[in-house]
Amino acid sequence: MSVRLRDVVAALEAAYPPRLAADWDAVGLVCGDPDDAVARVHVAVDPVVETVEEALQAGADLLVTHHPLLLRGVHGVGADTPKGALLHKLIRGGAGLFTAHTNADSADPGVSDALAAAIGLTVTGPLQPAAGPALDKIVAFVPTGPVLATVHEALSQAGAGEIGDYSHCSFATAGTGQFLPHEGANPTIGAVGRLERVAETRLEMVLPRHRRADVVAALLASHPYEEPAYDVFELAALPSATGLGRIGLLDEAEPLSAFADRVAAGLPSTAWGVRAAGDPDRLVRRVAVCGGAGDSALEAVAAADVDAYVTADLRHHPASEHVLAGTGPRAPRPALVDVAHWASEWPWCEQAAGVVRAALGGSVDVHVSRLRTDPWTIGRNPS
User: Signal peptide position in this chain (predicted)?
Assistant: First the structure.
């Protein structure tokens, strides 16, 4: 089977839907022809000189990275600029570039699931659950008979009644409608000045909130009445399995000092190493993790009833304030375990590689880069 670049992109976007990306992010296919054949895929955290050269030397047709190359807007990609030079090198070498960033952070499973697995956690759910899709429900009252099918089809075509892989979903109940037409009315059924009772069906369908105007317009256009009766309800947003960070459990509780050793053993070695803030003897079992920079989630962590939080790039002041807030008569706040940004996201590479292998089988050779592209190269402690 000849695999095309579009096939690999489809597999990755099914696992890491672009709609999950933050609005400031830049994800998806950066360069490459969707019709190009793909036999080898290379996966890395960073699109940098080292990983690009490694991918090309391995004969890769596609480099998949977590971090974007062109995150901020650019006006050109000339080869006389560092990022432009990388793009030109990839294109000349016949390789595409694909990025899954914040969409991979929020996906289920995603970056934080890979981090949790690397340190031996069983994931129970997201740390910051994403809100589910914004949904409405329309309730329309339609005369019983053939016209009901006409209205139902019009609402379905406008976007109502789609649930997962199903369309035309609805619920109908029989009842009696009542109305009294006044002067100026032009009733489809009945007459002005006469109270009318009609056998009607209450038709209920869910719809994406952004399709509300289309669905209401379809109802008004297809309904036989001059003034159809209908209601539109906003449904409560329910948390989903997607979202930033994960909460997980260790099989058994262990002291923070041992847990820090566990984290260090589960992640690739870096000059940054692993640092922890908290009582070394504090028992740790319920843990929050967030791949990449995670100090923006400290308040969510404090409210999550966890014993420790593993993330990267913790800054001095937020970490200090977090620790300080847990002193005194209050219960101690979760211990903090800080690791290198690159190390926290590197386990995702094997996850992404698994996505491609599962979708395309043996038709594509997938390789995970083990180059350490963490920018910090020297770590020292004063003696």
Answer: none
| Mean pLDDT in residue range 292-321 | 94
Instruction: Please identify which residue in the block is written with the tokens 């209908």.
Output: 230
Is 367 annotated to bind ligand? no
Vertex 79 angle, CA 78 and 80, to 5°: 90
Q: Is 66 in contact with 104 (CB distance < 8 Å)?
A: yes
Q: List the structure tokens of 101.
A: 């960033």
152 appears as a binding residue in the annotation: no
Q: Which two tokens stand for residue 283?
A: 């028992």
Write the pLDDT tens digit of every residue in 172-214. Answer: 999 999 999 999 999 988 899 999 999 999 999 999 999 999 9
Helix (H, G, I), strand (E, B) or coil at 171: strand
* Domains of the chain from N-terminus onward: 5-103+346-368 (3.40.1390.30), 111-130+243-339 (3.40.1390.30), 135-234 (3.30.70.120)
User: Whole-model pTM?
Assistant: 0.82
| Helix extents (H) in the chain | 5-15, 49-57, 82-92, 102-106, 111-118, 146-157, 212-222, 256-266, 298-302, 316-325, 341-345, 347-360
CA-nearest of 336, 326, 343 to 280 is: 336
As beta bridge partners, residue 207 has: 136
Residues 6+ apart with CB under 8 A from 36: 4, 5, 61, 94, 96
What amino acid is encoded at 244 in this protein?
L
345 is annotated as contributing to ligand binding = yes
For residues 127 and 288, the answer to whether their CB atoms sit within 8 Å is yes
User: Would the annotation count 317 as a binding residue?
Assistant: no
